[in-house]
Specification:
The complex is a heterodimer of chains A (307) and B (293). With 307 residues, chain A is α+β, with helices and mostly antiparallel strands. Chain A has 7 helices and 10 strands. The radius of gyration of chain A is 22 Å and the shape is elongated. Helices cover 51% and strands 13% of the residues of chain B. In chain B, helix 6 runs antiparallel to helix 9. Classes of the chains: A alpha+beta (307), B alpha+beta (293).
Amino acid sequence: MSRSPNRRALLVGASATAAAAMLGGCDRLGNAEWFRRTLKTGEDANMFVQRLLLGEATLAPEYAEADISPWFKPNGTEDPPDRDYKALAKAKFAKYHLVVDGLVEAPFKLSLGELRKLPARTQITRHDCVEGWSAIGKWTGVPLTDLLSRAKLKPEARYVVFHCADTMDQGNSLEGGGDGEGTDEVPAGNANPSMTKQSGSGESRKDSGGQQASEDTAASGGSPVRYYESIDLVDAFHPQTILAYDMNGQALPISNGAPLRLRVERNLGYKQAKYVMRIEVVESFANLGDGKGGYWEDQGYAWYAGI
Amino acid sequence: MARTYLTRSAPETGEVERRRWMFRHPLVIRVTHWVNAICLLVLLMSGLQIFNAHPALYWGKVSTFDAPLMAMTQTEDDPPKGMTTVFGHGFDTTGWLGSSVGSDGEAADRGFPAWTTLPSNQDLTGGRSWHFFFAWAFVLNGIAYLLYGLVSGQLRFRVIPSRDQIRHFGASIWEHLTLRFPQGDEAKRYNVIQKLTYLIVLFVLLPVQVLAGLAMSPAMNAAFPFLLTLFDGRQSARTVHFVVASLLVLFVVVHVALVLLSGFRNNMRGMLTGWFVIERKVEPAVPAGEPRA
């Protein structure tokens, strides 16, 4: 019995040491490539199972006018720094053209006016940021199906890539993630640079400024890294997948992606590319960015964004 | 199967009368217990990492940013303070919630502190990878446990209170509160409070936790819209996920405390090798469970 206090102290000490070692060990494990790949099988399983559960035309829930959020939180880029974009915005996007090309039989260009004349779909849907918050907005735009049918996909087409106008500087995300900072007041529970990955040493990745993205992709490519995203043909031909030019019955504000943004419901916010300039149909995204299919995917986020 | 005890005599001849060995935990129970323990720990810590990406909770379909149920923030003061607001009441939680020092020694805007999250530095995508992998492990492990438990009869024996236990419910609570642990034949089965607790954890908290997690997935919302009805919206589901996680932490804390108090070595041996010592009823009460060397 007299050993008891000692044994207790030993136990407590051992537990604390074990806990500390475990934490450090987990961080080291998490940085090991083989382990990261193992963990990623969980996300692969998410996609596999969710695709089994979802029919091709299973719709995301749609909401009533009364459910629309009074303030649709803009996230990531809220005002693209690019000179070309600023010029377009200044002219109220009169000179804007959406390009549809890649693995298609008939590539084409459409102005914003022409896009607005095409048959449109309006939907009130919920936007879920990967950070955890949600907002409901009403979107009007052109179904992607119509644009892709018009362009006629080649047989080898597998993915649809959205090239955006905004250069990613300071590690900002485009949509659905990144700094919640901007001209708007940051709400309670400021989500700050939560999507920005920081290395274990505390060295921040968001260090370079200006037009260059902070990632090494910028250095290796030599050209500014702009936001991009990709979806597969299942999502591309989904009835709720639209290129929206109106939000809540008015022209899309710049902070929410003017003049055109993707709405690909059943997916998290980072898939909902803003400032879409070009739609490219590809067979694989090996030659895009770091080859993971999107700006955030290149930073480690799962390509499949259904959960 | 479930109700038969394998027993053997204690190795020390002098102890034969006082102690009986009971084979309490079959292999499947032991393995699933420890896998579950690891899963819950990783899910908690990676969950806090994910929570830290937006350390605020709401009720309903969407985030009411100016009126959260709960939020953790860092103030503009120098040095910055950590504030936690719950139902509109603010608390200074500097160093713990809202603002805490990370591995680099700098105070940072962070919901839960770095030592509680996985990975420890701010890394949402890392947290998500851990969370999803261990969520699958947890669910598969749980299914294995339930199937085995049902088929072997272990589950029923372990978690369904018998009629006499329900009759003596009040006395059980008193025994529990005074930390008098059952001996003799009573120690062979879980007591009524244990059974009800496991019942609630197994069939209420854990399933609700999984459903609330799934209700946060936009793809699952499309496949099963009732998930949103069930929780009154995605943001409520997120809040429920947080609250149930807290209740599970409470359960684990009490569970571990009782393991320590009711004979750490005997309990650990039981869950590692299956063999558990039943002390015969002796007066006056001796510390239960702990075999004296």
